[in-house]
Amino acid sequence: MCKKSLAAHGSQSPLFLRRVRMSELKSLYEVADAFARDANVSKAESEVRYRRSVLDPEAFWREVAQDFEWLRAPTRIKNTSFDLNDFRIRWFEDGEMNVSVNCLDRHLADNGDKTAIIFESDDPNAPARTLTYKELHAEVCKLGNALRNLGVQKGDRVSIYLPMIPEAAIAMLACARIGAVHSVIFGGFSANSIADRVADCGSKLIITANEGARAGKYTPLKKNVDDALNLPGTTSVQTVLVVRHGPSTVDMQMPRDRWYDAVMDGQPETCAPEPMNAEDPLFILYTSGSTGKPKGVLHTTAGYLIYAAYTFKTVFDQKPDDIFWCTADVGWITGHSYVVYGPMANAATVLMFEGVPSWPNASRFWEVVDKHKVTIFYTAPTAIRALMREGDAPVKRTSRKSLRLLGSVGEPINPEAWRWYYDVVGDARCPIVDTWWQTETGGILISPIAGATAMKPGSASLPLPGVQPALVDAAGTLLTGEAEGNLVILDAWPGIMRTVYGDHQRFIETYFKTYPGMYFTSDGCRRDADGYYWITGRVDDVINVSGHRLGTAELESAIVLHPSVSEAAVVGYPHDLKGQGVYAYVTLKEGVEADDALAKEIVALVRKEIGPIALLDQLQWAPALPKTRSGKIMRRILRKIAENATDQLGDTSTLADPAVVDQLVADRKNH
Ligand code: WT7
């Protein structure tokens, strides 16, 4: 169990100390009376709910489940155990429902004409497009019918590789309607990454677009799919549906490739929803771990939907008139839970934005807020830091009067960025919910409840109802009171992932073996004297770059594909904008000369292998890597060198050749 040593948190973690001064632990922002007055949940109510949810989770979730439309109401609510000898996670297990019915049909009577999606294009001059719930329902039904005609059946996997356009939500919901399991692949992944993901789950069909646009630049999505399907292992794919989006032409390979609008044409606007057992799979989403290839995180039907919906309504204090904008791409879990499923299960109006924060200028986010009267805005710290660097003026020239609540997600937010977000963007008027969660958790686990929880800049604050976090030391001993350690969750909540697709053993090993009987988050965390949680960052070999997870093992495998490279080790290091950057140590083969051209080739290779999101920020040539006598790379030391904390290298006596470290330190100084 090597994770224990990786996870060791003897003292305070340097990343955390760099971000949060100790005096910050006491800084408290009470909920404003004006907000609390109309809030869905009061402070007292939130405390009552939490106690009830923990004392009697059955009763708590039974009541929440009543707000959903069931084909067959569940009688059994919670059947879970993290005990390795008796492991099971089943929620609402004898219930039957269809997720798309809960997100669409159920709203038609009262909210049919309410706007479901406002689409804002990358191009600020393009007219906005909107779909009402009635229209969205019709599109989803048409696509559901089209998919069935193309032979997609319940349980089949469908990959979705689309830009942030309404068709992405339509495609997800259409899969849910017919019981197909979707696997959304972020548009920033390359052909190789698509191929890996398609091969792993054996998708029958891919839905893509001719192109995607970001900051006026075009991504050839269809071309990437073509390249992926030329790679081995992808023969399961029978059909590629291509959404027309933007002007570029593409090669259509008949009969495999079909235009989306052609297959939609003439389809009926109703489609019989597939009855799904509560524990039937809803989707797979690939995410990076410490080892090997990305794993297919599998979420199921009722537990996931109910958890996404409940947390959306609770955390964001959602009201019928809200215009909710989550800037995350649907290629990530945040887009699944808080662009599509959570909001739509609550009949919310969501804004989908294809562009980026800084294009055509640094006011874009706030212009879109004003244009569509956005009331709740949810983004990542990396975007906030990037915009903060542009100063207050681009913000202040917009009104933002419609905003009433702000959210943060994806990585720890530094108090300085939090205050800028609060004071400048929110005019010191809007509470901030700093939401901690993971792809694996399905929905938010630790966060303030808007209107109920006093905020501390930089802290995700307190667990939501049904969530029992705890801190353990490296040996797995539970820590009490004020403490810093590894964050675990003691009992299951409805939104927890059920398995790693095709590899249940890996699921158990990754999350439940390090600390037997507990879900291990792989995050370090501090709990302060008020019981507030402060996430300190990953303690495994996952790097969180701009809120996106990159696995060091994947990056290293890509680097060593270069014929001149003999070995590589990748670590994260603190990065002002991205939170963490990627630092690569590369050892070349005997006789190969290191130069800038070679470094560029390696950077380009990683980009090609994984995708544009996998950028090596720093590359240092390493004559050799520091290893133990048993040949294990000492990443702890490499992290310190990357951080430029060469005075804190610690014990190097167990190294096979301590001189290696001196060389790396000397080279780092000249780097
Ligand atoms: C990792 C999960 C589901 C959110 C999107 C990223 C980090 C996420 C926070 C936060 C501090 C955070 C953690 C976590 N993280 N939100 N509010 N404060 N850290 O999902 O790609 O599965 O990454 O993101 O390290 O383990 P993900």
Short précis:
The protein is α/β, with parallel strands linked by helices and 671 residues long. The strands form 8 sheets. Strands 12-11-8-6-7-14-15-24 form an 8-stranded mixed β-sheet, sandwiched between helices. A 7-stranded mixed β-sheet has the order 5-4-17-16-18-19-20, sandwiched between helices.
Structural account:
- This protein is an alpha/beta fold and about 675 residues long.
- The chain contains 22 helices and 31 strands.
- A hairpin with a 2-residue loop joins strand 9 (about 210-215) and strand 10.
- The longest helix has 17 residues, at about 135-150.
- It is globular and about 75 Å long.
- The two termini are about 35 Å apart.
- Mean pLDDT is about 95; it is low at about 1-10.
- Bound molecules: 5'-O-[(S)-butoxy(hydroxy)phosphoryl]adenosine.
- 5'-O-[(S)-butoxy(hydroxy)phosphoryl]adenosine binds near residues 408, 412 and 436.
- Belongs to the ATP-dependent AMP-binding enzyme family.
Which cofactors or ions or other ligands sit in this model? 5'-O-[(S)-butoxy(hydroxy)phosphoryl]adenosine
Q: Could you tell me the strand content as a percent range?
A: 15-25%
Uncertain parts: 1-11
Helix content: 25-40%
Query: Strand order across the biggest sheet?
Result: 12-11-8-6-7-14-15-24
* DSSP summary, beta strand count: 31
Shape: globular
Largest sheet: 8 strands, mixed
* Contiguous helical run count: 22
